Protein 1
Amino acid sequence: MFTGLIEDIGVIKNISSSRIEIETTLNDISKGASISVNGVCLTVVSINKNIFAADYSPHTDKITTLSKLKKDSKVNLERALALSSRLGGHIVSGHVDGIAKIEKIEVLKGFYKVKFLCEKDILNYCVNKGSIAVDGISLTIASILDYGFEIFIIPETFGNTIMQLKKARDEVNIETDVLAKYVETFTKKETTNISFEMLKRNGFVE
């Protein structure tokens, strides 16, 4: 589990169709640890000084942008959330839902406005002012568009993540808010109309 608060920008040293090796300044990564790489939860399989390796499956390769990375590409890194840590962003699982494409980046006074294009199956879980993870970055949706969504990013976040390197037409990993998925599952199970008894049974009212 992660928070979406990026801790380091790593550099790809080697990459294949199933393994990635990344250089990082983070100094307490251990074998078997979970780490978010551009929002993708991976498991460290080996570490040598400041370079760690992680394997990923064909399914992960298919639904994320990992296969588009190259040697010397930069990536957002975040270590797994410790139980003693504050949840400064939002709950991020590291299980990417799909890919969005940057349509436009506007530099405005005091912040950046970024428009993303995405498929309907991602947009279905997006709401105004809701949380979303873009390449592992915890962000808030400013508005929903017919074809995607719009986000405003402060300079602190923009300058300390790989968003500073992005341009129009670049693709990013997207993870929608897990709460939306739970709500969908819950409502699908409730085949009858919502009633006071149903709300009470599920703890919404006393």
Note: The radius of gyration is 18 Å.
Protein 2
Amino acid sequence: MTQQPSQPQPTPPPQPGDQASFTVDSAAAGSRLDVFLARAFPDYSRSYLARTIEAGGVRVDGVVVKGSAKLRDGAVVVLTVPAPPRAGPEAEEIPLEFLHVDEAIAVVNKPAGMVVHPAKGNWKGTLAGALKWHLEAAADGGGLSTAGGAVRPGIVHRLDRDTSGVIVVARSEVAHHALARQFEQRSVTKTYLAVTQGQPRFDADEIDLPIGIHPYQREKMAVRSDHATSRPAVTRYEVLERFRAGALVRLAPRTGRTHQIRVHLAAIGAPVLGDSLYSGRGVIEPGLLGLPPGPPLLERQALHAAALELDHPVSGERLRFEAPLPADIERMLAALRSH
């Protein structure tokens, strides 16, 4: 009979933030690090422990290694115990505009100001919570995919909180993995509309600039090619309309980097209007355009996911979903045209 690797049992049970230390014995030698930890912490999912490893929360003989690393006899594994995974979002009765719903997917026109899934400081009022209320008890008996974890039910891709527009969610694991492959293989066509502060130089062009973490502002990304976090990023754009103080631009990102459109437009001197991170101004007052005093014309970034085209994960049919410009961006455009 094959001897099973022993399961480490720390005593007393460690608390989040504590360091738990294990010495690998001969029975566990040769095990992968992630498998070893999964046996040590059966209350944690492997994916959660994997994220802890990737974040540098585990050291083997004092060195950060990958989850696939094989452990030798006598190696010392030290883990900074993570907090238990947070439970998924509660179902919340929040109105949503559904563009499409079937047994495999749902497509929503997400409003600006709504966070897609719970995260630090944003546990309520999320799209995920609203989806649970609308779809978990749906008449078709469907629910939401759990492939993304309890905190992100059905979530396959994201839109920034203050970006409005089309987002697709998965209602089954099969649909989730099929959609994720399409995003990974870049066969999904995404179209955005943005109002810019300033104007792009060319009527149409392709921005091919790598994006990585900002060197000193953690909440921002930046164009940079000299960092481990830098990844290739490509955005095509076309100017639809020019104004004295800006432009209406259609964009087709070829990659899906964090803040990609916002960073790329800022890099060519035409940041998204109302983008507090990259344009320096998050509220657009009428006085900025020489108009009479009144309520703000815009209080968020003027970026809208206008269309999404993909293959249905079950039928394979090519589908296109569109969401019209929301009222606040239309109001901003009307002011720019009058100016």
Note: The chain has a mean pLDDT of 89.
Protein 3
Amino acid sequence: MLYKGYELKVKGTGVSIEGVRDFDPVHIFECGQCFRWYREPDGTYTGVVRGRAANVSYRPGVLTLDNVTADDFKQIWFDYFDLGRDYDKIKNAVTIDPIMEKAVEFGRGIRLLRQEPWEALVSFILSSNNRIPRIMSIISQLSSLFGKEIEYAGRTFYSFPDARSLSKCSLEHIRECRAGYRCEYIHATVAEVAVNGYDHQRLSRLETDEARKELLRFKGVGSKVADCALLYGGIKYDVFPVDVWVKRVMEELYFKREAGFAQIQEFASERFGMNAGFAQQYLFYYAREHKIGI
């Protein structure tokens, strides 16, 4: 069947989607934007999205999702993989200098995942001053402690816990995920969201500066975490998350001198505009893999 320009076929316990371009699982799952996908010995990836476990593989033009129905694809995975966006246009828009030309070519298979906004917020609070393997371990522990069991391929996975479930937990219980001081941030954020909610749709309607300010009210959320929550939660794409390392990367690649966080944000906004988030991800992946700024 045809679905929004793709040929969707049901095969065994999953689906295959033909006509998918600009898609490389290594680039997508290992570029630093997500923490719940694990590479299998055969090179495929298994992860959990919105309470569903699935395995993902790709060969030129064909995306294969196991443990996914046609309805699942339409309701969850099409948006999650941002398959409605023309990434050729994104690449052309951000390839405006030799640095970006190299970065885009290197990460040509990146797509920005539209992650569940609540999960993105909590995940990036946990990411503060942390390394990716450690973040993955903490989130896995948090999910196994407070999420729901999911059986797939003879293994047990866990959904990411919602705010209501976490709000019933004491700080001591949350500390079992071994996130250190970040547990206090999660506990405080959960308490506020349990009362006032987390309306990502309202955030998307706000100007970006206003949306960022809304997130800054949560304990443990600074500008970088706020921008990550907006970008990777599929809320805003004109943000350019900057931490100390990204600051060094931008200084080395562009400024050739020391630059302030606000100066880098202004530079990215003027240079990349509404596509700043995509540009940051290409640059981040390129710089990390080439050990720039390290």
Note: The mean pLDDT is 97.
Protein 4
Amino acid sequence: MKTTTTIAIIAAAASFASADILNAGFESGTGTDAADWAEIIGGPSGSVERSAAMPNSGDYSAYMYFDHINNAPAGGAYFIEQNQPVGSITAETDYNLSFYAAVDSTDFVGMDTFVQILWLDQDGSDGGGVRGETLTSLIGLGISDSYQQFSLDLTSAAGADSFLLRFQLSAGAVNGIANGLYVDDVALTPAPGAIALLGLGGLAAGRRRR
């Protein structure tokens, strides 16, 4: 009985570890629209799309672009986001967000690019709305014009039952700037510590049953 219980816990932990919570690839979609992602253009001279121009893997990536050289020198924000449903995450639990990203140019004058996660209480059981936020500058993490993998350790907020993940390219009202952000192979998975807690919980439950 002990062996069976232990094997079951190991199998559950392995499944938990490999489970990517996001519908994160950009291979699925129609034309420039990526399935499961919302593409939002918040300025007069840019675009957000599923692009075959420079994927890290497969045939497509997400691409956010602005051009303040050939258009009016006005600022804007261009982003792609995914909103996960109630029950997609557990409150106060450790997760790892990983993704590959690159830019067209490392001339960052007047602009920045971010990854943002909002921990949400969408069923209203703990007051509703945004329960916590992490906003990270990819320039601060050392993004370059070649793909590299980024990895962020995150803890979901108290009262959260879901989340919104957003990648954003922002520019100020500065003329003479053009740049683009590529994002690919995004994954949000439980952190090793969360997997260990799952195993301990399963062992405790097994002992109580015996």
Note: The first strand starts at residue 29 and ends at 30.
